[in-house]
Amino acid sequence: MTMELDVFVGNTTIMDEEVYQLWLDGYTVNDAVKVRMDGGVMEECEASADVLLSDTMDQYRTFQMCERLLHSPSKLGNQLLFQIPPHRQAMLIERYYTFDDAFVREVLGKKLSKGTKKDLDDIGAKTGVTLKSCRRQFDNFKRVFKVVEELKGPLVENIRHHFLLSDKLARDYAAIVFFANNRFETGKRKLQYLTFQDFAFCAGQLISNWTVGAVGEPSVLFPSFVCYMDVDLDKEFLQELKELKVLITDKDLLDQHKSLVCTALRGKTKAFNEMETNFKNLSRGLVNIAAKLTNTKDVRDFFIDLVEKFIEPCRSDRWTAADIRLYLTHYNNSAHILDTFKHQVVWDRYMGVVKSCIFKMYHD
Amino acid sequence: MPGKLKAKIVAGRHLPVMDRASDLTDAFVEVKFGNTTFKTDVCHKSLNPQWNSEWFKFEVDDEDLQDEPLQVTVLDHDTYSANDAIGKVYIDIDPLLCSEAASVISGWFPIYDTIHGIRGEINVLVKVELFNDLNRFRQSSCGVKFFCTTSIPRCYRAVMVHGFVEELVVNEDPEYQWIDRIRTPRASNEARQRLISLMSGELQRKIGLKVLEMGGNAVVGYLQCFDLEGESGLVVRAIGTACTLDKLSSGSAPNTNTHMHPNTAPASNACNSPSKDGKEPVFGEDLTSSSGPPTPFRALPTTSSSPPPFSPSKPCSRQSSSSDTDLSLTPKTGMGSGGSVGKEAGPLKTLLRQQTQTALEQREFPFFTLTSFPPGFLVHVGGVVSARSVKLLDRIHNPDEPETRDAWWEEIRQEIKSHAKALGCHAVVGYSESTSICEEVCILSASGTAAILNPRYMREGCLDIGITDHRFEEPSPPSCGFCHIPYDELNMPFPAQLTYCYLCRRQKVPDVLFTTIDLPPEAAVTGKGCLIQARLCRLKKKAQGEVNATAISNLLPFMEYELHTQLMNKLKLRSMNSLFGLHIQISVGENMLLGLASATGVYLTALPAPGGIQIAGKTPGELSNEHHILTIQKRINDTIAKNKELYQINPPKLFALDPEVFCGINMELTEEVVGSPIPEPRQRSRLFRSHSESSDEVSELDLSHGKKDAFVLEIDDTDAVEDIHSLLTDAPTPTGFYSCNTEIMPGINNWTSGVQMFTSVRVFRLSNANLTNQGLNKIFTDLCENLLKSFYFKLRSMIPCCLCQLNFTVAVPEEELIQVTVTAVAMTFDKDQTQEKTADKPPTKGGSETEEQLQFPLELCADSSSANCQPTSKISGVPESTNVSSRDRCSTWLELLRLKAHTMRRGSVKTSRRTQSLAHSVSSLERCSPLPEGRSRSLRSSRSFGGSSVTVVKMTPLSFLPGTRIIKYLGIINMFFIRETTSLREEGGVSGFLHTFIAEVFSMVRAHVAALGGNAVVSYSMKECMLMENPNKNQAQCLINVSGDAVICVRETDQEPTPSTTNIGHTSASATDEAT
């Protein structure tokens, strides 16, 4: 029985989480009905296909009406049109802003522009995410980016506050915004093995250590004067990184560093020989990456450089993750003992992030 | 200058972008009342403006205060062109005119535009100062309270029920053919909204005046309707019941549970009350004492309606019906009392009855819009009375004046009155009126339930809900008294099979009982109730004027008959014997008539078990036919058996033996207490025994779906086969669901807090040009059935749950369209009934019922005590803690029974011993009930959620919210909205359009209630939902009228009103969530 008109409106808005997910995933009404039928919901209440169709349509309509509010989640809390209990509101928002890792991996570091949006159908085809869902996710990224871009203060906090997201999700969005803002290259073939969560972790490290906001907490007395931005890297710091070059340009220093590291490592790992032979190469690689970060272009290539200059050589020598950990720890610490090396603070700030990024990125 | 209205515009939020260039808005506000307008400053470039205006003061007559709404318009300032309207808010200030209602209106209101819907919100503060409080009632009727609730509102007591009030106002409709008109639809729709708001204000004021004239101070069961007649005008009419209400002090909540011991009324009261003046507190002292611990020996006699021993009439023979009927007058002579008198001996009573009669007959229409009553109010119920009349709107001589319509309704009401008389009744309760209009034809309908009311309620100063049933003569026990026929047994107005009441055995009851009222809370019911619907379509030829009207008139009786037959069949199929809340709607379209009858079927313990349905073929010779009939018969029998199980209809079979003993005891006790010489008690009890024997036969018959009593359906043609098929295709409600269209669900009284009110609308387009009546019926039935199925599916997470007050409305908006609109509430309940009985004060009306019901199980247990005692051994595993309360109540029962036993000892030792064992078996039964699943759920769901700044407003079509207590009525909500669109496709078609609109209406109702300081709407109803569409032009328009009572309610346990952001609303949803 097809109806000319068929609506059901509850005083408390009725929403089925399963249908909401189907809607978010971009299923058409008919496909959603099919999925629900296969899910066995019909047996639950002696329903027929008609009933299921009518219910799905109702729910889809409700979600469409809610979508406008979900674009600025703080409105959902004080709007009057739908009576939705707060915990349901939180669920609606969280689910709406949740994204597919496969999808975000494709757009990570890309400019959130119309150009990228045009490619969404390709991305959809590649990742198996429906175009509708791709659009929602992409628009979410863009929306969050636009709001947060110009805001002062800690990035994650801003996102959580404006979009009422959970901490985890807010952190992921911070990573996406950070990557989009700095346009980090993530799409190269060599980087394909990295997941979104790998990058999100690295972004977290960069945000909390290498941005202006990372330097210190805002002053209690003049919070408004501390206008730091979390979205951009600390330019001063990037400049200072150039000083690290001494570690590879000063031959004595390089040798000294090498011997310190080797002494510490000897007998502790099977890969000792490879470490010893590769030390200079690896050290040059890491320090060069640091020195080049003043160029925007090289910032973009930060991750590809890490892979090419460090991870790949290690991998070809079959270092284990423990080897990497051991090596980098001693590599970092030994620099402190070098008496002619004066840039300990910058070195630590740099190596701290690089170390944890490499730990995260060193896997198959 | 009797009043000063003050308004302040505080702020706006979420305003729409009116200036594309800046993506902002320059908003200001116009506040208008009557002809005075104030303006705020322009708040430049903001979507969340803060006006914080001064107080705008309007000095006005209170007459205007009643009629006019406060009109708040939000506009966008434009330097060069005309200012653009963003939207409007109409604020009804009536609640502020009543000292007991709200004192201030303050809150966020959705800004509404007829084209764009809700566009942001505005925060407004409104106050009223009324002057010269004493001498202000002339043209105005400030202070008269209005209630949509069709029972005495929860925190009031009725001092007096004055009776029927009605009023009707007419005006020219600013627009009756919206789509063809040239002027902007927005302008005319706004004019229309404003006009209707004005008219309903005026109507309410006029009704208020009538109430004041009658000496009342409130209107209960206020029912207001609109008739959009088209060219002849726009009619707003209302009916209600005028009452004098007294507010109960906040400390003492109205004790809805007055029936803890329904039989405590002193027997002697019944006869030695010669009071002609109700004010006289004859039994004052007596009363206060009887509200203490019950005195069982007195209690018992009233359960039986045996005439008082020293009554001057013939003592206690097999009732004095024969002699009294001699005296009785035939119904046509107008008295109609004979039948009822027949069962009650004593000239004093007759005197009282006649008093009532005259009291009522002095009134033009002894009608009551109430559907449930204070205990003792309703004496007998005769049956449903209804009248319909077909009128031609283009024949109204003076369309702008109300006279013609007044005359029409007068005519119908007279008819109803005479029908009631024919049933031996002097009053009509559960009365309602409705219309159906198609082009120039209008069907006026009225229906109600003929009844005999307790005379005391008609006189001043004697009505008190709290202890009423003690004060009044108790002609028959409350659990069955209303079933006893009011008409004359030998002169019956319609053919019915009369039997002796299965409860008291003293008076006659009909085999089935149809009513438009709610099931009286004190009624004894077996099993659960269920929604029963009869649906019917009849094609008619398209015609004009007189011919059309005649065609419709001719069809009406056939439709009524068929609907009645359908109801009867379905009732029998469910093995029930009575209908409550019966509502028959007949809707007229250009080429068809739709009939929809909805009611709640119930098995009244007092009435005989219904016989089965027997199929008979007209041509018994044919073998194949015979076989066919046999299979159908089998299916029917199976369905009946299944339904009995489903609705737990197990009329106590052992009971048949028991009541005789019961009655016997009663009698002996009466004898002892009063000490009057009844000559042959033994003989009398033998007499009763013979009755019960006959009832045994009935129940045997019933088991085999009887031969004598069976309802015979003849299959003579295909039509009949179709009928039977349709009878059997009604899908049973899925497990865990119950449904009814009344206030309370018979058999369920332990509601938990889950409440979900909803509105659903479906429109079906008939595509087939050559439709037959049969095909139409099928479509219509499927439409209704599918709707119900949809509800069950959508609300499945609330199981166990009951759909209450299922209110179906049908319409034929266009030639090939059928529209069904449903508003109802789903409420969760506790599966385990016995546990909840332990609650000391059940919040719902149904609460009192449990006590009533217990009497039967008790008797049952007594006889099967050996069987019932066995479970005791198994109970040991049940944790003690869960039983504390149940044991408490058991102990009170034990006490009661012990008392009973004590008094019985003098009469018969044997019975007393039995009663003792009975008490044991009861306690054992109580204990073995495990902790209900539903309860733990309700506990979980009551956790609170913080954060939201929006007040949660619950809405329900019922007069109460489970688990809560209403502490204040804030005033009536009566809102009318029109919404139109010229971009139907873009808004998601008609469904998208209407979905948005209904959600908007809900939100505006909630906002108004919240602004009054309330947190719930009770007795909510959607009176009108009229949709017109023109998909070709991409246009649609819809009118919605809703009403209800705004209230503040607190949780049962709380004393103080909960803060505005309570979480009561969330609990329902969270309960919904549990299962999803």
From TrEMBL, chain A:
Q: Which residues form a coiled coil?
A: none
One GO cellular component term: nucleus
Q: Which InterPro entries match?
A: FIBP
Which BP terms from GO are recorded? platelet aggregation
GO terms (molecular function) for this protein are:
fibroblast growth factor binding
Q: Origin, by domain of life?
A: Eukaryota
- Please report the name of this protein according to its UniProt entry: Fibroblast growth factor (acidic) intracellular binding protein a
Annotated organism of origin: Cyclopterus lumpus
Q: What is the lineage of its organism?
A: Eukaryota, Metazoa, Chordata, Craniata, Vertebrata
